[in-house]
Amino acid sequence: MSASLTYDTARRVLEAGVARAQEIGQPMNIAVVDDGGHLVAFGRMDGAIKASIDISTRKAVTSVLMAAPTADLTPLVQPGAELYGLEQTAGGMVAFGGGVPLVRDGEIVGAVGVSAGSVEQDVTVATAAAAALEG
């Protein structure tokens, strides 16, 4: 299967994230990017903070570029750690939770980035959104 992410699939991922955000009562910004980090779908729920528009998109791009959830990067970017300074590369990566790769048949086909809640809430919504890829 091709490592592509269709708009319909991206929209399904986005809608799953919105549904989870509504369940937890936290308006979110949710970005879905393809395997090249290009935006395919985006939603800003009513009441989601505007600063998180950019953050959610950067989380998704970071997750694709690093082939990892952004939460996994947090310990690696601390002062003295192996990837310290990573956030200053590639136009500004984000190394805290809320970005999750979208994987199909073992290949990364994109990523979802979520921002506007606590890091825990962002991860919860991003994880639920990513799970919709399989559904």
From TrEMBL:
<protein>
    <submittedName>
        <fullName>Uncharacterized conserved protein GlcG, DUF336 family</fullName>
    </submittedName>
</protein>
<dbReference type="InterPro" id="IPR052517">
    <property type="entry name" value="GlcG_carb_metab_protein"/>
</dbReference>
<dbReference type="InterPro" id="IPR038084">
    <property type="entry name" value="PduO/GlcC-like_sf"/>
</dbReference>
<dbReference type="Pfam" id="PF03928">
    <property type="entry name" value="HbpS-like"/>
</dbReference>
<dbReference type="InterPro" id="IPR005624">
    <property type="entry name" value="PduO/GlcC-like"/>
</dbReference>
